[in-house]
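request received
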Amino acid sequence: MSQIRLQQLRKVFGKVVAVRDLSLEIADGEFIVFLGPSGCGKTTTLRCIAGLEQVDTGRVFIGDRDVTLRPPGQRGIAMVFQSYAVFPHMSVFENIAFGLRLRREPAGEISARVTAAAELMQIENLLDRFPSQLSGGQRQRVAVARAIVMRPEVLLMDEPLSNLDALLRLQMRAELRRLHREIRSTTVYVTHDQVEALSLGDRIAVMKDGEIVQCDTPARVYDSPATRFVGSFIGSPPMNFIEGTLQRFDGTLAVVAESVRIPLPPTLRPHTGAGPVVVGIRPEHIAVGGEAAADAIPATIIVVEPIGPQQLLTIQVGKTLLKASVPAESSIAEGQAVWLRFEPSRIRLMDAGSGVALSDTGSDVRGPGSARA
Ligand code: ATP
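response:
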């Protein structure tokens, strides 16, 4: 079993708290992504799991073993870094074989395992080449092959695709998914690219200021962000936010914002009855057009941007600008007055001060792992 348990990890560099009492449980065979802005502590947390960084306090468990004080070589891990770190003077075969030779594995075993790893990464025809004769994507595949040939219990990857161009990233992303399905190593993957996180992770741990703000499935992180920060970090364009006041009208709840009333569905049960709140709604959950009605919001189209199958609209509601996406064939013009409707089941409410979700998202703000740890 190679589950990972992080218990109250803390790592401080001078005055900077890089990792702030972080707890998380990662299941055996799970693919978990650490996602967050630059400097939020993703790499430091990964390096603490690897043993490349000594924690100030807290414990790291891999499987049933407390590895907190063990060196990287005794943790059963393999790492792939952003810089491919392949040896330029060695052939692809020797690069992949490097770790096995260090372990003094028999030659026949090395040959069989290198060939199998190369086939998995589809570079078996490149084994005689040197890194200078490879493309960036091929070099990165060598780096991944070198990690998986060790059959690690745990595979740690730090922004492995960020040096590749957009098309190669897309290809490698799909390959990493396939690879994980085949080898099932418990995988921790660091990125600041939310699309990569959404497409790769069984769960995403969204980090900010050394802490996990939300740890959940990609669908739940996207649909039910635990905080305003998560809603704004994930999604392109991000979630829209309108500040207003929660009020009760004839037994039903509504938010009054920008002198319009946004009715809330009865299923939305905020943990508070009244007061300043923020309404969150994704661009694809705003219906644009239609008739004037009690639940419709008057607005003006400011900009129409065609983006392939869709048009991205910038819409003014009072002083607030919103983004909505509508099909490319919708006939909407800049300057047009329209009525908006927010899909009721998609409305999210957040506390105006803390930004924490007020309606029940069903997910622990600090992640399911933290709750158990
Ligand atoms: P990025 O996406 O830019 O790589 P990150 O989320 O991985 O960022 P970390 O590299 O973990 O962030 O850094 C977290 C904080 O710790 C940052 O403020 C960083 O400057 C600081 N830090 C990291 N390593 C060191 C170090 N060796 N010495 C001093 N400060 C460090």
